[in-house]
């Protein structure tokens, strides 16, 4: 499986390189209402937009899963508390259990076999 990963990663890296070489023309990116405009190669604008989209998606996902992470932490704490309680209960049960001596079996009357 690792070999397949590296083959696919190599193919994607080669495609990204070919894309960058094929799109070296300048494009003007204008942030009209808030800021200046920039002249940059097309591939820089597209790859930058991909990185920004990835980062924003990761942040939104991280924020959305906060409740799940909190519940998991609470479950781990609860499991640890229950483990401690169980070990204490086993310790007290072992110390309070009376020592039972097994009785000798009663043989029926008659000649020994």
Give your account of this protein's structure:
By secondary structure, this protein is mainly α. It has a domain at 42-81. 66% of the residues lie in helices and 9% in strands. Strands 1-2 form a two-stranded antiparallel sheet. Strand 1 and strand 2 (37-41) form a beta hairpin. The longest helix is centred in the C-terminal third of the chain and has 31 residues, at 66-96. The radius of gyration is 35 Å and the shape is elongated. The protein starts with a helix and ends in a 17-residue tail after the last helix.
What is this structure, in a nutshell?
The protein is built from 3 helices and 2 strands. By secondary structure, the chain is mainly α.
